[in-house]
């Protein structure tokens, strides 16, 4: 089944560039082009594409506003293609498949298209499969911006997150990343992927917890698989059942 694809960009040359790349892909069927966000909303509602290459900044209605006008359950897969790096976090907050920074080459384009194809395979497979309460959820990639880079992480690459003034320090299985994001904001993004706040300054991946030990005065200490010891905030003691799988 071909990927029915819509191109949305207010710049004709940008649309032409995307079309030339897409026409070389046998798995893709181009169903149209739009030069504005308002036109894109109507076309997406009527044509129901599988995938949209969407510019971020357009006169009248930007890419995020386009998605806001569409019911979440009926949104196509989206790859943002834009010259503006600063919108990357916003893009992934609305579950974009990828974020192409102009100018991009064919290799980077094909990487994004491959991610979209994999996303659509998962979605189509989920639609065809019977519902199961045991089905895993929340394993989508997590995207952060660090040192001007956009970094894609699998949830199991992150061991814990530590507060660092106005930043958050991600402790990874291999290395660390400093991101300019509040703990509350990153907690909201990580929670669906199996993470929980243990105290004001620490978020951990639940699968990384080895033990929860009693401490003095009725307190508890969370011990991670790498030996890190973190106090469990009294206000979060109710999370004990979650950590224990209860």
Topology diagram in text:
Blueprint: E1 3-8, H1 12-22, E2 28-34, H2 37-47, E3 51-54, H3 63-68, E4 77-82, H4 88-93, E5 98-101, H5 106-128, E6 142-146, E7 149-153, E8 158-164, E9 167-172, E10 176-179, H6 183-190, E11 195-199, E12 202-205, E13 209-214, E14 220-224, E15 229-232, H7 240-243
Average pLDDT taken over every residue: 83
Q: Write down the domain tally.
A: 2
Strand runs, count: 15
Query: CATH topology of the largest domain, which one?
Result: Rossmann fold
Helix amount, in percent? Answer: 25-40%
Instruction: Round the Cα radius of gyration to an integer and report it.
Output: 21 Å
The assigned CATH architecture of the largest domain is 3-Layer(aba) Sandwich
Main structural class: alpha/beta
Hey, roughly how much beta strand do the residues contain?
25-35%
SSE string: EHEHEHEHEHEEEEEHEEEEEH
Shape: elongated
- Straight-line N-to-C gap: 42 Å
Low-confidence stretches: 128-139
CATH superfamily of the largest domain: Response regulator
Largest sheet properties = 5 strands, parallel
Structure, described:
It is built from seven helices and 15 strands. Strands 2-1-3-4-5 form a five-stranded parallel β-sheet, sandwiched between helices. Strands 10-9-8-12-11 form a five-stranded antiparallel β-sheet, with helices on one face. Strands 13-14-15 form a three-stranded antiparallel β-sheet, with no helix packed on it. The protein has helices at 12-22, 37-47, 63-68, 88-93, 106-128, 183-190, 240-243; strands at residues 3-8, 28-34, 51-54, 77-82, 98-101, 142-146, 149-153, 158-164, 167-172, 176-179, 195-199, 202-205, 209-214, 220-224, 229-232. The protein folds into two domains: 3-128, Rossmann fold; 142-243, OB fold (Dihydrolipoamide Acetyltransferase, E2P). Mean pLDDT is 83; it is low at 128-139. The chain has 246 residues and is α/β, with parallel strands linked by helices. The N and C termini lie far apart (42 Å).
């Amino acid at each position: 089944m071909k990927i029915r694809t819509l191109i949305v960009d207010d710049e004709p040359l940008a649309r032409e560039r995307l079309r030339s790349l897409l026409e070389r892909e046998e798995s893709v069927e181009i169903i149209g082009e739009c030069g504005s966000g308002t036109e894109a909303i109507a076309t997406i509602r009527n044509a129901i594409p599988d995938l949209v290459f969407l510019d971020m900044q357009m006169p009248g209605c930007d890419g995020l506003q386009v998605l806001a006008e569409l019911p979440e359950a009926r949104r196509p897969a989206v790859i943002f293609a834009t010259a503006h790096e600063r919108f990357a976090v916003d893009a992934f907050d609305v579950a974009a498949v990828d974020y192409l920074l102009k100018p991009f080459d064919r290799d980077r384009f094909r990487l994004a298209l491959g991610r979209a194809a994999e996303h659509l395979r998962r979605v189509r497979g989920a639609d065809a499969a019977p519902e199961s309460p045991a089905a895993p959820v929340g394993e989508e990639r997590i995207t952060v911006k660090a040192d001007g880079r956009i970094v894609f992480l699998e949830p199991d690459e992150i061991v814990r997150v530590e507060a660092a003034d106005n930043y958050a320090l991600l402790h990874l299985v291999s290395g660390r990343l400093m991101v300019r994001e509040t703990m509350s904001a990153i907690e909201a993004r990580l929670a669906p992927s199996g993470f929980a706040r243990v105290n004001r300054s620490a978020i951990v991946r639940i699968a990384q917890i080895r033990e929860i030990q009693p401490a003095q005065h009725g307190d508890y200490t969370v011990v991670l698989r790498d030996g890190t010891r973190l106090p469990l905030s009294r206000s979060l003691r109710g999370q004990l059942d979650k950590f224990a799988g209860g």
